[in-house]
Amino acid sequence: MFDICIYGNPVLRKKAREISVFDDELRGFVEEMTETMKVKDGVGLAAPQVDTSVRIAVVDTTGGEQEPSVLINPRITSFSEEREDFEEGCLSIPDIRLKVNRPSRVSVTAFDIDGKQYTIENADGLLARAVQHEIDHLDGILFVDRVSPVTRQLVAGKLKKMAKSQKAGTKAA
Ligand SMILES: [Zn+2]
Fold this sequence. Notes:
By secondary structure, the chain is α+β, with helices and mostly antiparallel strands. Helix content is 31%, strand content 29%. The protein has helices at 24-39, 125-138, 149-172; strands spanning 44-46, 56-59, 69-79, 83-90, 93-103, 106-111, 117-123. The protein has a 5-stranded antiparallel beta sheet with strand order 1-2-3-6-7, sandwiched between helices. A two-stranded antiparallel sheet has the order 4-5.
C-alpha cells in the first residue's frame, strides 16, 4: 500500500505526465493504487497523491461493490452548463470538507489498463464529481482552490498548519 501525500507536498502541485507504456509495471502500480484507495476508504485516488506524477486516477463510487474505474490519460470532453454544490473532501487534505460548485454532468474519455480507449457519457452525481476532482489532481489543482475566497479564508489557517507539518515531516523522514 502507498502512503498518501498531504497538502504542502509539492508533488500535488505538479502537472502530471501522460502514460505511454501499458505494461505489467503499470498494472502493478494501478493495483496498488486501488488497494490504497480501498484501505483509505476513498471515492477516488490520483497518482500524484501517492507521490507519482503521472496521469492516472482510480474511482470507485460504489463503496467496493464494483471494480473501480481506472482512468489513464483522462480528458473531459464536455461539461454541462448546469452546475451544483456538492461537499468534497480529499485524502490529501484530511479533516476538511467544503462545498464546491462544479458542472453537474461531464463526459470523459480515458484509457483503461490495457491501453484501450473508452468513454463515460454524461456521468452525473458522485461519479461526475469524483472524476472532476481526480482529473484536477493531475493538473496540480486541489478542491480548496475551487471554493469562494471567503470559504478559502475560513480554512486558510488549517491549510497553513497542514503544509507546515508536512514540510517538517519530510525533513524528519
Ligand atoms: Zn483529492
